[in-house]
Amino acid sequence: MASTTDGTTGHIHRPASSPPGRRRLGPVAMVVSFFGELLITVGLLLGLFVVYSLWWTNVVADRAADKQADKVRDSWAQESGGGDGAGGPVSFDSKNGIGFLHVPAMSGGEILVEKGTSNKVLNDGVAGYYTDPVKATLPTSGKEGNFSLAAHRDGHGAKFHGIHKIEKGDPIVFETKDTWYVYKVYGVLPETSKYNVDVLGKIPKESGRTKAGHYITLTTCTPVYTSKYRYIVWGELVRTEKVNDERTPPKELR
Prior knowledge:
8-stranded mixed barrel; Sortase, Chain: A; single chain; 26% strand
């Protein structure tokens, strides 16, 4: 209330104060804000990609490998137990797998071995034997040569992830339907060019061996999570052991 000139009272109307509005960003601040949100989005997408590459691909690959391994085990059981394959020759070129690799120093599990080293093969969580550029010599052939194998070190099953744990003197065992092939590690090459195919030769160069023999070679990418170089492990056959009815593993695996 306030007095007027005629002695009456009246209201004084004051303009209501407007509520504080949002401060408008300048051009530079808007650009910075946009790129900040963009970086957050990209970071989330990269995080999801890492999860997919290093975890989910392992899950999918392990499932595929287990399924294929079951087929191999079932076919062996049929051939041994009077099924459709009874009495017939064992196929070592099966698309489902030719046997199982056991490397206690690297992994406690078995690794299915298939033909070929393409990503299509290895992405199923298996190890593959080389057919190109140097053809592997299968131990089942009885011939001297090099049983050369490859597998992923990260993602898609990562079967050779722990290859760096293998040391000289460690056993490597290859299991087939009726024979255990027991190898002993004699050489390790932590890094070499991905184009160095001489390490896969029948007498693998740089391994220290100069005479023909029965060798095994494990290869994978290095450093971990890259494919810049190759990590190599060499072993030599020390003995074979027939598989009994219980499939009792050799002493190296007990």
